[in-house]
Write the structure tokens for this entry.
Amino acid sequence: MQNLANKNILLMGLRNKSSIAWGIAKCIDAHGARLIISYETDKDEKNVKELTKDFNNPILIKCDVSSDLEIENLFNEIKEKVGVLHGVAHCIAHANKEDMKNNFIYTTREGYSHAMDISAYSLIVVSKYAKDLMIDGGSIVTLSYYGAEKVMAGYNIMGAAKAALEANVKYLANELGPIGIRVNAISPGPIKTISSKVINDFDNIYEVVERKSPLRKSVTPTDVGNAAVFFLSDLSSSVTGVSLFVDNGYNIIGI
Ligand SMILES: NC(=O)c1ccc[n+]([C@@H]2O[C@H](COP(=O)([O-])OP(=O)(O)OC[C@H]3O[C@@H](n4cnc5c(N)ncnc54)[C@H](O)[C@@H]3O)[C@@H](O)[C@H]2O)c1
């Protein structure tokens, strides 16, 4: 099934094989889209090139979302190379290590701004540029986490950042809906990645979720990728402003 044939999709946040973005990238490619992939640092370039070498003519562009200039350059290059954009998968988050290790109450002013900037604000600015290239309408999808809604020990500032991200999704969905652009979030269960390594007690969370979720298994990047294809394709043409759990049902469990 090629649910994304003839679509140009920007995927942001591919680091390595364990990235959720890698699971999403494979699903998007399998569904026939042309991928534009942005990565954060020059160091990531080699990995990303190697991973995507069998994709359908991917375009790889460096973009650190803390830089307005790099974001502007990214979209200028996309405009020049493909003209029209149909979708964006935003898979980016970051918090300083010390703000993840200490108790939440010790979050620094700088650390709070940094986590909000990279993990929540970036969706707003990316959407602003993306909408100008989405002349046939489009779909933007981002990645949240259950820690936006409930206290997950050790998730700290990222919980606040994901709550802001989910609010951003709703406000963007409302503003962009009239021009045919949908904005949604996927909220995956815990997955072992470089980013998850900085979450205190992550292994315990992972084990509990696997054991207690109704489907009694852990979530894979491919599970998230399949949900992303749904959001990026016309299959979800009447769905906007939602956050969808892809967590084997863990969110319905009380104790
Ligand atoms: N791993 C999990 O359990 C889990 C669960 C729910 C949601 N998420 C979310 O999934 C997304 C992807 O994370 P992941 O777990 O795959 O880890 P990851 O470390 O593979 O991906 C995080 C990505 O963010 C990018 N990034 C960080 N700062 C950036 C910047 N300034 N500019 C551009 N890119 C930047 C990194 O380069 C990396 O590619 C994040 O939003 C994360 O919060 C992860």
Summary: Residues 18 and 99 are 23 Å apart (CA to CA). DSSP finds eight helices and seven strands in the chain.
